[in-house]
Design a protein that fits this description.
332 residues; 12 helices; alpha+beta
Length: 332
């Protein structure tokens, strides 16, 4: 089955070329069903790191890079790059590239939430009465945040969420979605399941089973965005060896780890996925944000073939968004 999404800039319906789709199909159907031990081994952190090395660090991978031709095949615009094209001489360097984001990724306005990544997004609600409610499809709410984190489970219960899926060719820095002060930052160990739509549909609540890093921002503080508490969950996936926390208050300069008490500026680089496909989930408190109208309309657009629609039994069409662009606004 083909998978289509909507390009936000043009409004066009586009087909996604799913890298490794056949292998993912075998892994999440035949292997998962017939050999659970092998499936667990192949989705373990060690196997994920090994696959990443094989694909992005090996001499074979370096020879296959092909610089400008390789970049063009991925749809990367060389004009966005900060480094000279010839410096990106391995697949890993391509996937960890930096861009001139202040010039090519305009920042969302005041009291707006910015997309944390160049990604394909779906939005939803944890409220059963909401038209956006999907019962534990992408994640188990309690598992996602950690079942011992009662403060955050209480704060975000019944709230809203957005799921940003990064495909392997994307720019892999994550940026701060809303200005605010860090009130908690922690990591939960887990597997490294694929973010391919077929894998997400076939595996129950995959995002709350993967290794993930959670940062909770208080945006109601002085200098904040005034959209309440925001939880940013960075989810590791197949061939993601590491989630590097590297907040830079200006450009990519002087990167620093995330610590409670830090005031983060909206739109600035926060972390880096190394490398592959991955996901960022944003959680919002009830009644604090309204999602952008075009994202809501696109998600329910009829006649667009989506594996999420087929798997979940209702229209669910992703919209491709640019990092730092507006995805929600304050309702306060």
């Amino acid at each position: 089955m083909q998978h289509y999404y909507i390009d936000r800039c043009s409004g066009e319906v586009r087909r996604e070329r799913l890298l490794g789709d056949g292998l993912v199909g075998i892994l999440y159907s035949r292997v998962r069903e017939q050999s659970p031990k092998l499936f667990r081994a192949l989705t373990s952190p060690r196997a994920s790191a090994w696959l990443a090395h094989l694909n992005y660090d090996s001499l074979l991978g370096a020879r296959l890079a092909g610089a400008s031709r390789f970049l063009r095949s991925l749809g990367v615009d060389p004009e966005e790059l900060r480094e000279p094209l010839e410096a990106l001489d391995t697949p890993r360097k391509v996937f960890e590239r930096r861009i001139r984001y202040e010039d090519c990724r305009p920042l969302a306005g005041e009291r707006e939430v910015a997309s944390p990544a160049d990604a394909r997004v779906l939005v939803g609600s944890l409220r059963k009465a909401s038209a956006l409610f999907l019962k534990e499809k992408f994640f188990s709410f309690e598992e996602l945040l950690g079942e011992t984190k009662t403060r955050w489970l209480t704060a975000f219960r019944g709230g809203d969420y957005a799921v940003f899926r990064l495909t392997p060719e994307k720019y892999h820095y994550n940026h701060v979605p809303a200005a605010g002060r860090v009130v908690d930052h922690y990591e939960i160990e887990g597997a490294h399941h694929s973010c391919n739509p077929s894998a997400v549909v076939s595996l129950v609540t995959p995002f709350s089973k993967n290794r993930r890093v959670i940062t909770v921002l208080d945006t109601d503080t002085q200098g904040g965005e005034r959209v309440g508490l925001v939880a940013m969950i960075e989810v590791a996936a197949l061939m993601i060896g590491e989630i590097v926390q590297c907040y830079s208050p200006q450009d990519y300069d002087h990167p620093q780890p995330i610590m409670p008490g830090m005031l983060l500026a909206k739109g600035q680089p926060k972390s880096l996925f190394r490398p592959g496909s991955s996901t960022v989930v944003l959680l919002f408190q009830p009644g604090r944000v309204g999602f952008s109208e075009d994202l809501l309309a696109n998600q329910l657009r009829p006649g667009v073939t989506s594996r999420f629609s087929a798997g979940f039994g209702r229209p669910l069409v992703e919209t491709e968004v640019l990092v730092r662009s507006a995805v929600a606004r304050s309702l306060a």
